[in-house]
Amino acid sequence: MMIYVIFGFVAIGMIFSFVRLLKGPSALDRVVSLDTMNVIITGTIVLLAMLFENVLYLDIAIVYGVLAFLETIIIAKYMEAKV
Asked: Taken in order 60, 36, 21, 5, is the CA torsion positive or negative?
């Protein structure tokens, strides 16, 4: 039962982050909200691994986390060159 409450809180965090992604007053706010969403998604994949008791999801979470990190670095480099 508790894991469903946790998924509810994760969904609320995702909604707040998505709103910041859409409304963000600057591009940097949007980048931070996108990174926050990536962290939340990675955590959700780990929660799914715990819920389904399948360690394959942990490998997927690691790969997703690395790709999300690279995405953030590439966007930051682009924003730095743009400014």
From this structure: positive
